[in-house]
Amino acid sequence: MGGVIIYEPEPGSPLQDVPWVVTFRSWDDSWDPFICGPYERAHAIALAEAVAVDSEDVLADVEPLLPALAPDDVLADIAELRAAAEAETTGPNGELTEPEPEDLVPTETIVPTAEEVRAGMARVVHRLVSGNGNG
Q: Where is this region: Disordered (predicted)?
């Protein structure tokens, strides 16, 4: 069985509404990774799970596609992610801790139809061109 890594934004986060992408890669780097999307979050998760669960060597990363408009936007996101990662790996006394691995449990994935995916992509594009793509 392959694996799926899904970025989980905080409840109520505006990241729920931005476009999402899926990066497919092999566990052993035997083939080049590629990115699919943009999708609505639920569609990205369903696609990733449908592909990776039935594959032996596929790892799928589901992540938001952030609408960075300037280098400062990217640098601010990097700083925020660095701070969050440091907070997760530092214990209360300042010592480094290892995150606990999660067991992957296959679920019954309902894969959206091609028409549903196209409609979702149209909604994503509409949000992007209307200026509502960043929450």
A: 85-106
Q: Tens of pLDDT along 119-131?
A: 988 888 888 788 7
- Cβ atoms of residues 2 and 60 within 8 Å: yes
Structure tokens at 26: 């092999």
Query: Does residue 45 contact residue 112 with C-beta atoms inside 8 Å?
Result: no
CA distance 19 to 41: 7
| The amino acid at 109 | T
Q: Sheet harboring 58-64: ordered strands across?
A: 3-6, 58-64, 20-26, 34-39
77: enclosing H helix or E strand: helix 71-89
| pLDDT greater at residue 81 or residue 19 | 19
Span 28-62, pLDDT tens digits? 999 999 999 999 999 999 999 999 988 888 999 99
CA atoms within 13 A on the CB side of 55: 17
Helix (H) or strand (E) holding 4: strand 3-6
Cis status of the peptide bond prior to 38, with omega within 30 of 0: yes
Mean pLDDT, rounded, of the chain? 83
